[in-house]
TrEMBL record:
This is Solute carrier family 15 member 1. Interacts (via extracellular domain region) with trypsin. The chain crosses the membrane at residues 47-67, 74-91, 111-132, 153-173, 193-212, 272-290, 324-341, 353-373, 609-630, 642-663. The gene is Slc15a1. Residues 678-700 have a biased composition (Basic and acidic residues). Electrogenic proton-coupled amino-acid transporter that transports oligopeptides of 2 to 4 amino acids with a preference for dipeptides. Transports neutral and monovalently charged peptides with a proton to peptide stoichiometry of 1:1 or 2:1. Primarily responsible for the absorption of dietary di- and tripeptides from the small intestinal lumen. Mediates transepithelial transport of muramyl and N-formylated bacterial dipeptides contributing to recognition of pathogenic bacteria by the mucosal immune system. PANTHER family: OLIGOPEPTIDE TRANSPORTER-RELATED. The keyword Zinc-finger does not apply.
Amino acid sequence: SCFGYPLSIFFIIINEFCERFSYYGMRAVLVLYFKYFLQWDDNLSTAIYHTFVALCYLTPILGALIADSWLGKFKTIVSLSVVYTIGQAIMSVSSINDLTDHNQDGSPDNVQVHIALSMIGLILIALGTGGIKPCVSAFGGDQFEDDQEKQRSRFFSIFYLSINAGSLLSTVITPILRAQECGIHSKQRCYPLAFGVPAALMAVSLIVFVIGSRMYKKVQPQGNIMIEVFKCVGFAMKNRFRHRSKEFPKREHWLDWASEKYDKRLIAQTKMVLKVLFLYIPLPMFWALFDQQGSRWTLQATTMDGNFGAIQIQPDQMQTVNPILIVIMVPVVDAVVYPLIKKCKINFTPLRKMTVGMFLASLAFVAAALLQVQIDKTLPVFPAAGQSQIKVINLGTDDAVVQFEPQLQNVNVMSMESTGYMTFETSQLQSLNVTFGDKTTNKVVKLTGRDRHTLEVKNTMTGIVAELLPDEVTSKPEEGNNLIRFINNLPYTVNVTMGDVSFENLMSLAASNYSLFPGGRKDKIMVSSSSVSCSVTPKGFGFGSAYTIVIHVCTGDTLNVTYSEDIPPNTVHMAWQIPQYFILTCAEVVFSITGLEFSYSQAPSNMKAVLQAGWLLTVAVGNIIVLIVAEASKLSEQWAEYVLFAALLLAVCIIFAVMAYFYTYVDPNEIEAQLDEEEKKKDKKDQDVYEKQAEADTRM
């Protein structure tokens, strides 16, 4: 022992910290891996993410059955941890871009291989993490003697602290790893490292757990109470169906039909458990909203500005707000909020707390919807089918007038300036007239639709130049990256580089292709030719923008450029997500913690595992609800989907409030004491009968 604690528990705590780091670290970057690496859209990414989470919360029932009925906790943890580690390793391998990038163009040649490996990895992870979830904490509790109740209680506090520490650190670190660039043939977001580190931590978790093997107290499997409960319920239903005729007298409760086979104690305990499980029916809707932090809310953050001054926050790092606030809010609510409510003489029962939690979660999604409306206002409008967009850049020293024929629109463009994009019906726009003073030129145009173009115009000594350049950008850059291209307004060819990206030789009045740059950076622009060389540090491009940089003057060390904004940067700051995270965290504190406390207070001591399985099942069903609602609603606007989820939870909240109003609290200890008393009386009566019979036999 160490400080009065079994030495073995330290291996278990380290094991749990590493496992939670592994799980939450992988999960933090998962939805962005689906979207940006596998190139799935938002809806499919969200659907697969929630399917995986649901599976993670369904498999604990399987793990508990294996541990209690077959292998025991130790062997179950070891065997499923091996499965878990293999799954994490496969996920890391599946994210290696160079695995199928045979032509070395920076994108996988066979995405199906990556998808197949990813799905195999996720299934193994779900089996592993779910399978060991109900075993590790219980195995830790087994290490203590009956007279170490105080130490056992402190162990569980430290155990749950290790869970929060692992999840918090991993959701900070793995997004940073993902944001790095790595690769053999081409540099990409480093998903192999983001998945590889959690895989390594899971391997460490397994090794540490096995090292402590000789110190563990290993309780042999003694059967699972859940199986007995299922058998009791099944027999009662079958027996009731057999005796459905009116000639059989009714019984007080339908479970009493199991009395022919099962003892009164098990039936009474099962009644108490089913009474609580009935209240669980509305609860999955809360988890349907809560678990969207890792999917919809993370995707929402990708369209926002993550610049926090000295540091750049990645979209998937915003999830860390929840565990940070949990650490702050739990003691505040327990020490300040609840006592104040009690002083106001308000009977804030556990079920009322849970109702308030559901209402707060609904409110958090209203906040998310309002934020989404503001984000949508900043997003550019791209051309629809049958439409084209044109912007004009005047490269000359004189003002220009551009007429879009036949008589669609006229626009004046000042010297060295540009317009915004103008939208035209492709079938109507036929030609362009460009006028500089008394000079005019006409250009016939034929556009295909759903495209953007830049019209560069310049008045030269030899006439008017009017060139229509394809922009080839019809969506906002993702992950906060920026797209940059150059137009050479010098009379000679130059070589252009920005940071470590070369745009190579750019002829006079020619435009380069767009190149992708990480958001928030200010890479130096270098322009050189055989006779001149100059540079400039550009302005900040923000996050998620696209710019055309026009090179006007390069003399000595002076480089004069202008910036034409093709797509505006993200302007809504990620900090605006904090209110919705705060409200949802408050909801979690009064709902989740209270829910577990209420469940344990209303169930017999040997039925805690059944309620734990039921609680985890509500989380799984909640994630399945996300799939159903998102698929069935077919809403095109994300804010509308947030409102829909908020409305559904509010409706469920009202139903739960009604159910809670009619619920009668019970004391399981009191009921079990009554059962003990009845059993003692029955045993005494049986003993008296036995003694009388024995006395009669003696007289004979």
